[in-house]
Amino acid sequence: MGNLSESTKCHECKKSSKYFKRLSPSELEFINQNKTQLLYRKGETICKQGAFASDVLYISDGLVSSYLESSNNRHINLKILKTSEFIGLSSIYGDNIYNYSTAAIKDSTICMIKKESFKKVLTSNGDFASEIIKGYCENENQLFNKILSLGSKQMHGRLADALIYLYNQNMQEEKIFPYLSRKDIAEFAGLSTESTVRLLTEFKNDNIIDIRGKEIKVLNPDLLKEISRRG
Amino acid sequence: MGNLSESTKCHECKKSSKYFKRLSPSELEFINQNKTQLLYRKGETICKQGAFASDVLYISDGLVSSYLESSNNRHINLKILKTSEFIGLSSIYGDNIYNYSTAAIKDSTICMIKKESFKKVLTSNGDFASEIIKGYCENENQLFNKILSLGSKQMHGRLADALIYLYNQNMQEEKIFPYLSRKDIAEFAGLSTESTVRLLTEFKNDNIIDIRGKEIKVLNPDLLKEISRRG
DNA sequence: TATAAATATTGAATAGTATCAATTATATTA
DNA sequence: TAATATAATTGATACTATTCAATATTTATA
User: Fold this and answer.
1) From CA B110, how far away is CA B39, in angstroms rounded?
2) CATH number listed for the domain at residues B153-230
3) What is the CATH number of domain A2-135?
4) Are A129 and B129 in contact (CB under 8 A)?
5) Which residues in chain B have Cβ-Cβ distances shorter than 8 Å to A76?
6) Would you say A161 and A189 are in contact if contact means Cβ atoms under 8 Å apart?
């Protein structure tokens, strides 16, 4: 706790997102007063699909994966969420429930902001609202890609899509592959774990990727894109 | 044209959506001045995935299907859009291009509203903006369902999902099945046309649905939901 | 209405993918 | 570190779904 409390005030937060930059000091202070900060350990569920959503969550520091849980007990991974990203934005106006689950893939500090407070700021600050809407749109695009991948491609194309996405995430500051199991990758591609393992080996033998344990490097991104394109 | 011009003014439009109800007369008049009305024939493409999006489209009267086109030449159907729904809202803040294609499934009157004008009203009228954001959220939920269906279910579950969606659409004022080919249904379910036909027959033999040519009736919605649930 | 074109249906063959079981490698914990 | 648990890999098999080809049916058009 002591270690957390240092960075507990929003306006002192070094991890402030582009969204929060749109807020005035008083708005930021208002948010600060209506939030709680929590530490989630690797593997812990942060929010659960279907649960009542009274807060908007903000990743103050960490690495989180979002996923959908199907009625037949499978998971489809949606995104890797990083420091300074929001969770559960669409619950603000929607059903009041989380539409997907999230889990910490490494120890993560999460700010929980009361939804009503968040909404208040959103209504009063058009700039902030615009930024949020922009976020929605980008997000939608990624969902379309997912639908195309799952709906119109077979194994090779689907794994290529997953690797392209994950590799792009991996290239930024923090490496993510060390935190992902084969099962995680499989759930990004919408494949069984075994098929994923087999295909990864195939890609490796074709010098498309390099594998050292969990670490995966893309050697031939163009070919990977071509495989994605062909489906 | 003569037939169209009668209902060309926004404030006289009988097909005004819940969104437009949020606008003041002057705002409505502003939109009116910055729009064009066009008639699309059945089968015509209304907007094309990837094309530059300078307008927000509004279905003044008609029936439209939205779909994604994959790089390997397949289509995945997303939604049936009806009178008083928007097309291309997410291009307002996003990439400036349409992220999906739409085609008229029957003759449809479409209003094309200059994006910049739409944006102007959106920025100045928070109520209107709220309504639009709410629309985004509902939409996102449907995309999650699609991802779950395509990513975690096999044929029976996927067709059940498609039929449940289409049947719900069908129940409203206008019947939609007469406008849909087996191929269309297949593209909603993410299946081949032949598999779709075979499964439809199977569902019919199991008294889950009734088929008379294009007309499809759901006889046992609970069983259909159960099939969807089990995947 | 007759004819042509498009759509729907069915069967058989093939390709694609998951599942199960066994084994090996890696990570965790006493 | 040894023991145990978890994750990764591989092979064989069974299942799922598409494709191709042929036929029937419906729709559109001259």
Assistant:
1) 6
2) 1.10.10.10
3) 2.60.120.10
4) yes
5) 147-148, 151-152
6) yes
DSSP one-letter string for A146-214: HHHHHHH--HHHHHHHHHHHHHHHHHSSS--GGG--HHHHHHHHTS-HHHHHHHHHHHHHTTSEEEETT
Task: Please report, for chain A, the start and end positions of each structural domain, with discontinuous segments joined by +.
Answer: 2-135, 149-230
pLDDT per position in chain A (231 positions), as tens? 333 444 577 887 766 677 777 888 888 888 888 899 999 999 999 999 999 999 999 999 999 999 999 999 999 999 999 999 999 988 887 778 999 999 999 999 999 999 999 888 887 887 887 788 788 888 999 999 999 999 999 999 999 999 999 999 987 788 999 999 999 999 999 999 999 999 999 999 999 999 999 999 999 999 999 999 999
pTM value is 0.93
| CA–CA min distance B6, chain A (Å) | 35
Does the distance separating the beta carbons of A99 and B231 come in below 8 Å?
no
- Judge: domain B2-125, CATH 2.60.120.10: yes
